[in-house]
Design brief:
356 residues, alpha+beta, 16 strands, 9 helices, eight-stranded mixed sheet
Length: 356
């Protein structure tokens, strides 16, 4: 996979790049010696480390005019020494880590290291991993400035070879927002860090939302929302039933997402809710259309189902507008917080019936 940003190309390193990568590593070691930094030494990293990076598929390079000018490791395999400060990380979900970042001497002070880090973030977003962690020695002033410029937060110390202390940092990557066809409104995947704003939105609108959403009363804290999001985000992206935030600028409007997916039969279900202040603008209709398109084309889904309480007329209007077929009514299919059962209308849309 390649990411193009003229005139530079970001791609996975290949065996034929090894000699050039090693030249860049040696240049970086020489610079560290001149600056008195002990980040790396004569034995680390070794050329065998580089070869293993490439064999593992974790080595990446930036090329300019077909010449490698930067190298680093982009890994999702975890770092054992990070367990030393595990209680200080924001969560225990999978994370991106960049190691062995080195820039060719002729490309120094041109923003190449920052570009590498930003491209690594894009790799991580494509995998649905939104934690980014790094570490560096106390005397690596250049890396400390880079980390600060990218918005990382300090979390504590970790210790590598010879009990060498390093500062460890993390940041949450914000998933890209997508327009939904209503000016000013977008949709993006929710992250663990979003638990607070989701809980606050529900908490402020409990009386309204609890009419049709049985889960509302059981959601009593941010920790409850984190407990909901954690297993979703811990699931590999290709198998995940993602939850999406509907936003107006940066304000949350509601949620929409998938559940009860059945990959073997290429089917899934979409659910949604919207805060009162944003209703009647076509937001959910457009968001569900976006999700249908995503499911059919990105996940090869064949059938999408939506379930609506029969008396929830705004909710029923969504699948009707989008060409879903009413297949029938499930009698007393859901127990509401009022203590009453409600019948549920079952709608479905097949891939062949979907209109772009």
């Amino acid at each position: 996979m390649e990411y193009s940003d003229n005139p530079n190309i970001f791609r996975k390193a290949e065996e034929t790049d090894t000699e050039r990568i090693w030249q860049i590593i040696e240049q970086a070691k020489a610079q560290m010696r001149r600056l008195g930094s002990q980040q790396w030494d004569e034995n680390y990293p070794s050329i065998e480390n580089i070869r293993q990076d490439i064999r593992d598929g974790n080595g990446y390079v930036i090329c300019r005019e077909n010449r490698v000018v930067a190298y680093g490791v982009v890994s999702f395999d975890g770092e054992p020494v990070y367990e030393q400060i595990k209680d200080k990380w924001s969560n225990d979900l999978p994370y991106l880590i960049v190691h062995r970042l080195a820039i060719a001497d002729e490309m120094k002070r041109q923003g190449m290291a920052k570009q590498f880090m930003l491209q690594a973030e894009e790799v991580s977003r494509r995998k649905g991993i939104y934690n980014f962690r790094v570490d560096t020695k106390y005397d690596n002033a250049y890396m400390l400035r880079l980390i600060d410029s990218l918005g990382f937060n300090y979390c504590g110390e970790v210790y590598y070879r010879n009990n060498s202390a390093r500062k460890a940092f993390e940041k949450t990557l914000r998933p890209h927002s997508n327009p939904i066809g209503v000016p000013g409104y977008t949709i993006r995947e929710a992250t663990y860090e979003d638990a607070g704003i989701i809980f606050e939105a529900i908490d402020k609108n409990r009386d309204d939302l609890r009419t049709w959403l049985p889960f509302v009363d059981s959601l009593q804290s941010v920790a409850d929302e984190q407990q909901f999001l954690h297993p979703i985000l811990a699931t590999p992206y290709e198998k995940r039933d993602p939850v999406f935030i509907l936003e107006h600028d940066t304000d949350i409007c509601g949620l929409a997402g998938f559940h009860f997916s059945d990959p073997s039969n290429h089917r899934t279900e979409i659910g949604y809710w919207l805060l009162p202040a944003y209703r009647g603008k076509g937001i959910v209709t457009n968001a569900v259309h976006f999700l249908c398109q995503w499911a059919f084309h990105e996940r090869n889904i064949n059938r999408i189902q939506i379930r609506c309480a029969v008396d929830n007329h705004p909710s029923n209007a969504i699948p009707k507008r989008l060409g879903f077929t009413l297949e029938g009514t499930e009698r007393e299919g859901e127990l509401l917080l009022s203590g009453e059962y409600t019948d549920i209308n079952i709608y479905s849309l097949l891939k062949n019936d979907f209109k772009q």
